[in-house]
C-alpha cells in the first residue's frame, strides 16, 4: 500500500512539472519585438533594437557651470520628448536615446579625455560639447578609427573652416554679428573701444575677428585684456584700468553670469557708454545678475529666445519652465533643436551609428523636424553647420529692441 501511495505521489509531481512547463512555453513572448503600427497580415513586427548613447562633455562645475547645465538641459529635454513619443524608427527597428554627461570644467584637455572615455565605455556616435576649445580638442581624433560626430555648440567660425566633415556647428557663425554690432555701437556711442572678453580660446578668437573689423570701420582699440572667469571673481582692477583709457564702448562676453558682473562693475565705476556682448552671454540671463535691463542700456547682442517671434517658442518656454523652473535661453534652445535634427538625420540615413551616413542626411534632419519643435528658423545645413536668420537685439530704455540685419 505504501509503495502504491509513493508511486501515485511521484506521478502527480511529474504531471505538475510538465503542466507548468507547458504554461511557460505558451505565455512567454520575445521581449525585443512588438507588432507594427500597420495592419497587413499581422506578422510584420518592429524590433525594439535598444538604446543609442549620446555623449556630452561640458562645464558642470566652476564659474561656467550654469552655462554647461543649460546646454545639457536642452539636450536632455529633447531626448526625453523623443523617448516619450516611442523613440525613433530606423530601418524597421525602434531606438531610444540615453544622454551620458561628463564634466570637463571648461578645459579642452578634459573635454578630449572625456570624449575618449565616452567612446570606449558608451560607444557614442555623437558627442556634444559647448565650447570651442573642447571642439578643437575633439577634432584631433574624431575622424580616426572610432569615428564620431561632434555636436558643436559654438559659433566659432574656425570649427567649420578647418574642414572637419564630422563636426556639426549648431549656432550661427559669430562673424555675422561683426557688422551690426560695430555699426550700432559706433553710431550710438563712438569709435573708441576697450576689450575685456573671456580668456577662453573662444574669447580670443572673437576678439581676433572684431579688432580688425572695428579698426577698418575707423575705430580705435584703446585697451586690450581678457578675464579668466575660471580664476577671477572680482574684476575691479581690470575694469578700472580699461576705463582709464576713456572708451566709448566695452567689448565683453563669456558665460552670462560673470559677464553681467563685469557690466555691473563698469556701471558702478561710472561708465556711461555701450557694450558689445559676445553671443555666448545672453541678456535675459545677465538681467538675473544686474536686477534690471537699465544697467545694460546701450548693449547689443543676440536676441533672447523668449523674445523670439517663432510660433514654437511659447510652448517650449512653458515646458522648459515647468521642468527646470527658469526661463530658457539659446543654450538650452539650440541644443534642444540640434538633438531633434540629429534624430531626424538618423531616420533619414537609415542608421544610428554610421556617422558618415548621418552627416550625409543632415539636410534632411533640418527639413524634417516637426513644426512644434522648430524654435529656430534653420533652413540649411551647409559649411559644417546650420544656417538661418541671425536675430540681434539691443537694450534701450530698459527694454529689448530688435535690430534688423540686411
Count of alpha and pi helical runs: 14
Radius of gyration: 27 Å
CATH T-level topology of the largest domain: Rossmann fold
Instruction: Please write the string of helix (H) and strand (E) elements.
Output: HEEHEEHEHEHEHEHEHEHEHEHHHHEEEE
The computed structural class is alpha/beta
Distance between the termini: 105 Å
Mean pLDDT: 88
CATH superfamily of the largest domain: Response regulator
Number of strands: 16
Q: What's the CATH first level of the largest domain? A: Alpha Beta
Shape descriptor:
globular
Share of residues in strands: 15-25%
Poorly predicted sequence stretches spanning 5 or more consecutive residues:
1-44
How many strands, which pairing sense, and closed or not: the largest β-sheet?
A: 7 strands, mixed
CATH architecture verdict of the largest domain: 3-Layer(aba) Sandwich
Q: How many separate domains make up the residues?
A: 2
What portion of residues is helical? 40-55%
Topology:
Elements: H1 2-27, E1 33-35, E2 45-58, H2 65-84, E3 88-90, E4 93-103, H3 108-122, E5 126-129, H4 132-139, E6 149-152, H5 158-161, E7 167-169, H6 178-188, E8 192-197, H7 201-216, E9 220-224, H8 236-243, E10 249-253, H9 256-268, E11 274-277, H10 283-290, E12 299-302, H11 313-324, H12 330-349, H13 355-360, H14 362-368, E13 378-382, E14 385-388, E15 392-396, E16 399-403
Parallel strand pairs: 2-4, 2-5, 5-6, 6-7, 8-9, 8-10, 10-11, 11-12
Antiparallel strand pairs: 1-2, 3-4, 12-15, 13-14, 15-16
Jot down its keywords.
406 residues; Rossmann fold; 7-stranded mixed sheet
Amino acid at each position: 500500500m505504501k509503495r502504491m501511495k509513493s508511486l501515485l505521489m511521484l506521478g502527480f509531481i511529474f504531471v505538475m512539472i510538465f503542466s507548468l512547463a507547458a504554461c511557460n512555453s505558451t505565455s512567454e513572448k520575445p521581449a525585443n519585438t512588438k507588432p507594427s503600427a500597420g495592419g497587413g497580415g499581422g506578422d510584420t513586427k518592429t524590433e525594439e533594437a535598444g538604446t543609442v548613447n549620446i555623449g556630452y562633455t561640458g562645464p558642470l562645475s566652476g564659474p561656467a557651470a550654469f552655462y554647461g547645465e543649460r546646454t545639457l538641459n536642452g539636450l536632455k529635454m529633447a531626448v526625453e520628448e523623443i523617448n516619450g513619443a516611442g523613440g525613433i524608427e530606423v530601418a524597421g527597428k525602434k531606438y531610444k536615446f540615453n544622454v551620458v554627461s561628463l564634466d570637463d570644467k571648461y578645459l579642452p584637455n578634459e573635454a578630449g579625455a572625456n570624449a575618449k572615455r565616452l567612446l570606449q565605455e558608451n560607444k557614442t556616435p555623437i558627442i556634444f560639447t559647448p565650447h570651442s576649445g573642447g571642439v578643437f580638442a575633439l577634432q584631433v581624433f574624431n575622424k580616426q578609427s572610432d569615428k564620431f560626430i561632434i555636436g558643436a555648440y559654438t559659433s566659432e567660425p574656425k570649427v567649420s573652416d578647418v574642414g572637419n566633415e564630422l563636426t556639426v556647428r549648431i549656432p550661427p557663425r559669430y562673424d555675422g554679428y561683426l557688422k551690426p554690432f560695430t555699426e550700432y555701437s559706433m553710431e550710438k556711442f563712438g569709435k573708441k573701444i576697450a576689450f575685456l572678453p573671456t580668456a577662453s580660446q573662444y574669447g580670443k578668437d572673437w576678439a581676433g575677428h572684431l579688432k580688425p573689423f572695428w579698426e577698418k570701420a575707423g575705430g580705435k582699440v584703446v585697451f586690450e585684456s581678457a578675464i579668466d572667469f575660471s580664476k577671477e571673481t572680482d574684476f575691479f582692477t581690470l575694469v578700472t584700468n580699461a576705463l582709464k583709457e576713456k572708451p566709448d564702448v566695452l567689448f565683453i562676453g563669456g558665460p552670462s553670469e560673470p559677464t553681467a558682473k563685469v557690466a555691473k562693475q563698469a556701471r558702478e565705476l561710472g561708465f556711461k557708454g555701450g557694450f558689445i556682448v559676445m553671443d555666448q552671454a545672453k541678456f535675459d540671463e545677465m538681467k538675473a545678475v544686474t536686477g534690471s535691463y537699465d544697467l545694460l542700456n546701450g548693449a547689443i547682442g543676440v536676441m533672447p529666445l523668449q523674445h523670439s517671434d517663432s510660433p514654437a517658442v511659447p510652448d517650449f518656454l512653458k515646458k522648459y519652465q515647468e521642468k527646470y523652473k527658469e526661463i530658457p535661453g539659446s543654450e538650452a534652445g539650440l541644443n534642444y533643436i540640434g538633438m531633434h535634427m540629429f534624430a531626424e538625420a538618423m531616420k533619414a540615413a537609415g542608421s544610428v551609428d554610421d556617422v558618415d551616413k548621418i552627416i550625409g542626411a543632415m539636410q534632411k534632419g533640418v527639413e524634417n523636424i516637426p513644426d512644434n519643435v522648430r524654435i529656430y528658423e534653420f533652413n540649411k545645413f551647409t559649411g559644417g553647420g546650420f544656417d538661418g536668420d541671425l536675430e540681434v537685439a539691443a537694450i534701450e530704455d530698459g527694454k529689448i529692441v530688435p535690430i534688423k540685419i540686411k
